[in-house]
Amino acid sequence: MTVSTARRMMGSAAALPALALLAACERDLTELDPAAFPPEPAVFYDDFAPGLHYGAFGGSKVDALDIERDLVYRGTAALKFTVPAPSDPTGGYAGGAFFSTVPRDLSGFDALTFWARASTAATLDRVGFGDDNTGTSRFPATLDNLSLSTRWTKYAIPLPLPSVLASESGLFLVADASEYPVGYELYFDDVQFERLGTIIDPQPAIDTRTVSGEAGGTLTVGGTRVTFDVNGTHVTVGAAPAYFTFTSSDPDVATVNPDGTIALIRPGTATITATLGATPAAGALTVHVETPPEDAPAVPAVPAEDVISLFSDAYEDVNVDTWSADWDQADVQDVVVAGNPVKKYTNLAFAGVEFTSSLIDATSMTHLHVDLWTNDANAFRIKLVDFGANGVFGGGDDSEHEVTFTPVSETPIAPGRWNALDIPLSAFSGLAGRGELAQLIVSGSSRTVYLDNIYFFRGETPVDPTGPPDPAPTPQDAAGDVVSLFSDAYDDAAVDTWSAEWDVADVEDVAIGGNATKKYTNLVFAGIEFTSQTLDARGMTHFRMDIWTPDETAAAGFKVKLVDFGADGGFGGGDDSEHEVTVTSAGGLATGAWVSLNLPLADFANLAGRENLAQLIISGDLSTVYVDNVYFRRPASGPGNQTGKNP
What we know:
The chain has 1 helix and 41 strands. The chain is mainly beta. Strands 32, 33, 34, 35, 36, 37, 38, 39, 40 and 41 form a 10-stranded antiparallel β-sheet that branches.
């Protein structure tokens, strides 16, 4: 059994929670004189202290502990652990906890000390205290990877925060798996708590990392530890979260319980920091609380005879060996969203979906479809792997290719909604063939994603029958005559949001003929803000926007409002100004056609200035509007028409 195996077995025992720890170096404290002992410092001193008991960890060699009468440091007895060989059927490692039936006040000590040696040079996997054999131990503290020699040496484990140990029953713990093909013995003597007075400069720390979870769930703080100066040498002790006091930057989003459990309350972001007593801990935990999907993705409409399905209620699925291969870094579970089964991946670094026992021949298919829900759309990646003609991994003819989706990719993705990805198999250009597909691997920026309707299909990419069949016309204005907010044809200025928190509208990024487009639905009014970097449009003469709507426009109006924050650049500073222009069918508004609005800025007569433009607000009678090519331009093209229609 390996060292990591021993730790996993210990973690599975009720008596010892798993901790993320740093290794410490060997400490030779022979020169330290014994301290004066307050009541009950002894754990083992020629015999078990009164009321002391021992419990073996689950999976360990239960008879590993014995009393040694010959090889002792001093006195008449020592503790002996027989570490089994990896092949020993009686247990994979030696380990257990010493605990007292009557709690002790350890607050007057600063270290657990002991003398130790081994029958051969060995690395002790774990030693420490704080496991009281109840399964609910609050204050474990441990030292990992402690080097032992064949001579007696004194070691000290600093108490992370003595003041909280006024009632502690877990007094000593040991766990070790052999690093050799054979076993060996470990010896311990004079195990006791002391006040050495040479343990100084505590440097607490927690892991700096970013985690995410869903509202109503929990996460855990990891990597809690304290580094001490012990006689001029740094010793790092893994300390349970209960030693620390945690603070959340936004308790309405996430809070931390005393045991280090993070309660996720509502969507948002919070930063968790910690102190050990009065000492701030290094590191910080960034917690993103997300919202799970409430609705199911659209039901696929591709005929079954044109589909090879891996996972979908709409089709009969082929055999999939696993949705999370043993070599991946992800957790997967089957959940139900709005009555629809979906795959939920958490802790996602990369997940391997394998169908190696029944390879898929997708040579007659043209696309891969995946429905994706993510709360972080910065990147989502899909890789296909083909095992080649020999049908086995590593046979010399394997091939693979990965495609990446982002908010600005040809097929853009957006957070907080289902994204229907119809990926041409030709996009996987690194695949030498598609006749022996064996793996699909997903990864990305979000630690949690939901997937549904994963299938290969034959045919053209389905087109939204209610949306524009073709993209908006490509603008012809020179880039030097444009200040663009949104257009594939130009470099865009910074826009803070395309749907402000105060508006009444839904917006999503869609692709029309490969062209990025904004789709507004449930539109009452939508606020587009660029307040962090206001725009200076004094050199421009017109405002341009392409819109397409399926709604009836005969008696409808579409309104465009521009807002300038004035010289102070702030909202409500007393010098704000705004003006709204309405476009109707008389001015060119039409149903089912791209309409290019080309509005003279002079028509926004109530704008006191155009050098601090901060908001664009669209509203009117249309519920669904597709928007593209939003920019200011010069000079005016044509005779000053408000609109130009494009079918």
